[in-house]
């Protein structure tokens, strides 16, 4: 029997509801496959600001570093939107990513046949879409210094900086190639090399890395074109690798190929310590506290945890299969609701997925 320590950071808004659901699913997996998952909870984001005066308390970070994996909900909300930069919930998320060196954020975009009518896009465009966005997560425009307001020649001014060390670009592009090698063997490196010097170095490094992966095709694509191609013909993609902010924007866009932002999970990986798993969506203040949010992105993030951090492929498969079964049976949270389907709450969706995991066990 394996024992695993999972740090859970629910955060704010629907973060609490969706992590509660994912923990229930992990417990069901523990029961079915005889693993002991030990959950410990920590504060992050707005709630941490309110209770501890900082968006990432030391205690939370220490707990996460000592765990085998971290599950995070989401942070942020209107209550803290006017706070100074160091007292914003989002700062806590950026800090934990940096402190744990989680430079590689994997965001899989996968089509579900039963949700074909939930997407605003045509079935012919989205059917069988299956690609991975590899988003650089600890550098780029989010972390470059300076990032500040200042006065220049008597005028109010502001600066953000897009900064990368060559080595930071290299490791994320290598991660993309390693993934592509095990998939459809194509890497699309997305940049703005027609304008940005950082993108020109990104391209150079991509070319260098590509030489070591002769069986993987490399293509370069400008980010504005990539945003369009994602809607025009998303099936052309296998692995997309890109800068932090480009990846943030393109992944929310790509989520609509699956029908909802509430469907996309992610894994944030480092080379050394524990990894962190989180849905790509935010705290959805418009849904918070109403038991309406789609918990599937977080549940699928838990499946990624089992697969990547614990090597539990069968267990991860069981979650993914249960999600597919429940969707195929017609259960929908409001974000993917369709005529003729049964609209359920967050907790009902979790119960259905849990039942599918445990029922399947009974059949075997
Ligand atoms: P959001 O992702 O919270 O919501 C965007 C839209 O998608 C909303 O209409 C919301 O209702 C819907 N949505 C999101 N998740 C859903 C789910 N699971 N089920 C059903 N519908 C869902 O983005 P936003 O509204 O731009 O930002 C709200 C707050 O969340 C901000 O404070 C922002 O900084 C924060 N945020 C946090 C994270 C994170 O913690 N990783 C990610 C994005 C945004
Ligand atoms: C995400 C979020 C975060 C990001 C914010 C809340 C800092 O949008 O995880 O995608 O931009 O990385
Ligand atoms: Mn985002």
Automatic annotation (TrEMBL):
Give residues annotated as binding Mg(2+).
224, 248, 252
Matching SUPFAM superfamilies: Isocitrate/Isopropylmalate dehydrogenase-like
Q: Which reaction does this enzyme catalyse, per its entry?
A: (2R,3S)-3-isopropylmalate + NAD(+) = 4-methyl-2-oxopentanoate + CO2 + NADH
EC code: 1.1.1.85
Q: Which InterPro entries match?
A: IsoCit/isopropylmalate_DH_CS (IPR019818), IsoPropMal-DH-like_dom (IPR024084), Isopropylmalate_DH (IPR004429)
Give the binding site residues for substrate. 97, 107, 135, 224
What Gene3D superfamilies does its record include? Isopropylmalate Dehydrogenase (3.40.718.10)
According to the record, how does the cofactor bind?
Binds 1 Mg(2+) or Mn(2+) ion per subunit.
**Domain Isopropylmalate dehydrogenase-like residues, every copy:** 5-353
Keyword hit for Metal-binding: yes
- Cellular component GO terms, alphabetical: cytosol
Q: Cite the SMART domains for this sequence.
A: Iso_dh (SM01329)
Instruction: Write down the position(s) of the site called Important for catalysis.
Output: 142, 192
Q: Name one Pfam family in it.
A: Iso_dh
Superkingdom of this protein's organism: Bacteria
- Similarity annotation: Belongs to the isocitrate and isopropylmalate dehydrogenases family. LeuB type 1 subfamily.
This chain's function reads: Catalyzes the oxidation of 3-carboxy-2-hydroxy-4-methylpentanoate (3-isopropylmalate) to 3-carboxy-4-methyl-2-oxopentanoate. The product decarboxylates to 4-methyl-2 oxopentanoate.
| Name of the protein | 3-isopropylmalate dehydrogenase
- What is the source species? Thermolongibacillus altinsuensis
């Amino acid at each position: 029997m394996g024992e695993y320590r999972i740090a859970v950071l629910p955060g704010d808004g629907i973060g609490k509801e969706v992590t509660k659901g994912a923990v229930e699913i992990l417990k069901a997996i523990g029961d079915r496959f005889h693993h002991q998952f030990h959950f410990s909870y920590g504060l992050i984001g707005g709630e941490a600001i309110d209770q501890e005066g900082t968006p990432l308390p030391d205690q939370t970070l220490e707990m996460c570093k000592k765990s085998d994996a971290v599950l995070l909900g989401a942070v942020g909300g209107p209550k803290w939107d006017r706070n100074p930069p160091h007292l914003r919930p989002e700062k806590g998320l950026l800090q934990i990513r940096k402190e744990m060196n989680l430079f590689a954020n994997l965001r899989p975009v996968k089509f579900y046949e039963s949700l074909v009518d939930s997407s605003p896009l045509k079935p012919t465009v989205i059917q069988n879409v299956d690609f991975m966005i590899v988003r650089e997560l600890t550098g780029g425009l989010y972390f470059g210094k300076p990032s500040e307001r200042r006065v220049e020649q008597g005028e109010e001014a502001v600066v953000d900086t897009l900064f990368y060390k060559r080595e930071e670009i290299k490791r994320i592009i290598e991660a993309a190639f390693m993934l592509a090698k095990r998939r459809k063997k194509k890497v699309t490196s997305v940049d703005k090399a027609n304008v940005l010097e950082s993108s020109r170095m990104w391209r150079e490094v991509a070319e260098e890395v590509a030489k070591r992966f002769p069986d993987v095709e490399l293509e370069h694509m400008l980010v504005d074109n990539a945003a369009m191609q994602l809607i025009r013909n998303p099936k052309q993609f296998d692995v997309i690798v890109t800068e932090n902010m480009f990846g943030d924007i393109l992944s929310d866009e790509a989520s609509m190929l699956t029908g909802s932002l509430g469907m996309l999970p992610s894994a944030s990986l480092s080379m050394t310590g524990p990894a962190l798993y989180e849905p790509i969506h935010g705290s959805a203040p418009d849904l918070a506290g109403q038991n309406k949010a789609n918990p599937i992105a977080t549940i699928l993030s838990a499946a990624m945890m089992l697969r990547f951090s614990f090597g539990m492929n069968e267990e991860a498969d069981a979650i993914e299969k249960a999600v597919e079964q429940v969707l195929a049976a017609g259960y929908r949270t409001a974000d993917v609701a369709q005529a003729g389907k049964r609209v359920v709450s967050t907790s009902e969706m979790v119960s259905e997925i849990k039942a599918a995991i445990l029922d399947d066990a009974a059949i075997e």
